[in-house]
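Can't attach files on this board, so I'm pasting raw text. These are the components:
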Amino acid sequence: MAGARFDVLLPLLFYFVAVYILGFYSMKYVSQASRREGKGFLTEYLVGDRKMGGFVLAMTLVATYLSAGSFIGGPGTAYSMGLSWVFLAMAQMPTGYFTLAVLGKKFAIVARKINAVTVSDFLKERYENKTLVLLVSVSVVFFFIAAMTAQFVGAARLLQGAVNVPYQVALTMFALTVIIYTIVGGFRAVVLTDTLQGVVMSISTLVLIIAAIAAGGGVKNIVDSLSALDPGLISPYGPDPTFTSMAWVTSFWILVGFAVVGLPQVATRAMGYKDCRSLNRAIIYGTAVSNFLLLAMHLLGAFGRVLVADISTGDLVVPAVVTKLFPNWLAGVVLAGPLAAVMSTVDSQLLVAVGAIINDIYAILFDLSGKKTARITFISSVAIGVITFAAAFNPPELMVWLNLYANAGLISTFLWPVILGLYWKRANTAGAFASIITGIGSYIFFNTYLPRPLGMHTIVVPLLISLAAFAIVAYLTPKPPARVIKKFWGI
Amino acid sequence: MKEKTTAEDVDFVEDPRYRQCNKEALMGLGLGLLNLLWWFAWGYGAGSQSVQNYSYILGFPLWFFMSCIVGAVLFTVLAAVMVKKYFQDMPLGPLDEKKQEGGR
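---
Top answer:
Structure tokens for the assembled complex are below.
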């Protein structure tokens, strides 16, 4: 700890304190709700009593979706791939409006009809199959623990590098903060801190990109220098046209643009907003903020090539640019951005995992009608928090492997059962099973043997296969029972 | 909705709000596809020539400026227009028996 840079650390500590305050403020609502029985408590803890306003909805959606990837990994790759990688990242342009418009009001209406507080809840009522819900929920818990571990590792490394404290200290400081405010405050704490984090990310990104362009002597200068280094850096095909090929780059629209609808931490947000006004405003703000953040952060990575010449790995480009351009105390303020991105992703994942354990796994295997709900929720939240925290100290092989499959696995699991369940009356249980099994199965197959089928990202063909499997199997098996249709489509 | 109804669900009345919901979902999908088209056409349309022949706007290569920067601004504006002009307010909670307040 002797060499710790307290001038960088201090603004970060202020930030952590603010996050704790929001957590404990939300605890008030949670402890009031803890007197409710069963689902009543979970409606507060998992969807904040469906009271989210437009600005909060926009910020939590953006902050949940933009993770360490958009603030560390993405700019890092843009450092070596130039504008081609910024171009690829902009495949996420629809993120702000697509999910909210497609799941839209229908998902919110249905969630209220069936009193759903998790996406698995929706699947449980729609497909009426315990095995399906258990399968889905267990995979949520495993994938999320792995994904959270990876995010913790990323954040701890960033903190370690910037503040110069040992990895274990950085990890403890960071992980405990996230775990504590999420557990005590539930969904309300998560979306409030997400809002704060969204604002911090936006300000820090704005400051960074302006400073970077100024330091590089203007856009024209930077682009000229990039072009002189390697003309590929300013072409959509990148320095290595076989890697960033047209088909592959374009197929990211499927993975990060459209199929995001299938991520449960994103879909949950479409259950928790208050009214149509919130939704409308969230679409506008969310699109504006996410487009700005994506563009600016990835441009920063690409421009970083000119600003900081010799860094060992691209992942360090953001901290390197920050320490080069800013005095230490301001560096702390700016670094809060990427840390906020990680926090706001992990807190939502933690909550979805807790929801899966309590609302979906526990409630199916045991009974959840009593007043114990609050206590059981608390205990299992702590358990998941501790497991994730412990795993981040020394990530086991399994975690690394699971994280590799996390997003694709979740998308293959949820996308079609949610979308078709919502919009297609003929969608039935057998079809949902078929789509999940063929989706994940074919993803693992292609990933192992043919990572770029038809030149596209691995996810595309498995998604088409699982859609076909869903439709074919659904038509070959009986229609869903009339009571389900009535419950979902009736008045 | 004027869908074909079979004998077993004659007594089934579909939630009147869904008609508008479906429309809005299709609009979101349409905007997404248009966005992809814009990004692709400018990106690969203007970016595929050799780098020496690029033209520039505000220092950025034309393909990048149009597909990513103008695209981001344009589709934020279009999303706002979609929401303001075509999305309709409706109650999200369960509908009461009095249907006059319903879907609109």
